[in-house]
């Protein structure tokens, strides 16, 4: 064959045309597999958060000391999963990679043996599990700053929906464990959406973020694209509160923490990806 089109049976939607030159000088149009996109690996809506300033933390005397002082922080644009990673999505990752299943919080046997939990947020994941999932999906864990901006917008609101107190229609919090009835299906409380339309950022499952936890970080952190303290250790930041958290722990500014090997039936995660440059990819 000295030229022309080499045909394949692969779907065009997942292929790329590449022109190569052989010794005869004739170009061959061949097909090469494209790597899967984030949307193909992890088909979940993502919300674009525009670049710009927002108010992070709380004025001294409001909230807790590790939220002080309040600062105006600039972030580059990014996209965040609209909902927390579910059991169904996490199972696809396990099947594709051979990564271990998380412990089953609903009883004995494998998590896959429990019916009707596919749309509940996955919990009992360590920080390493969350990081591995996001990497597989060609995304990453959010920074604390990204998580907080997605939750509160630019006006410093106390909760994702505003400053009004939470209700059972806005947040799943301050409850006792009730097996499969404890966690809510992701996205099922639209009255609790953030100003950008991101869901379940108060209660349901706490969410791992990428930062190491430092209670004094806000006092010396950069005001542009902060990525957490440089120190190493075992404690990572967690945001958003869970089904069991009191009101003070589900505010947009509340900071939680846990060892990166921590597994609890109240901790899950969601992923983000950068929309401009590579400064935040790690």
TrEMBL record:
User: Which protein is depicted?
Assistant: Sulfatase-modifying factor enzyme-like domain-containing protein
Read off the InterPro entries from this record. Answer: CTDL_fold, Sulfatase_Mod_Factor_Kinase, SUMF_dom, SUMF_sf
Which residue ranges are recorded for the region named Disordered? 156-176
- Which residue numbers delimit the Sulfatase-modifying factor enzyme-like domain? 46-273
Q: What transmembrane ranges does the database entry give?
A: none
Annotated Pfam families: FGE-sulfatase
Lineage summary: Bacteria, Pseudomonadati, Nitrospirota, Nitrospiria, Nitrospirales
Domain of life the protein comes from:
Bacteria
Q: Which Gene3D superfamilies match?
A: paralog of FGE (formylglycine-generating enzyme)
SUPFAM superfamilies per UniProt:
C-type lectin-like
Q: What GO molecular function terms would the record report?
A: formylglycine-generating oxidase activity
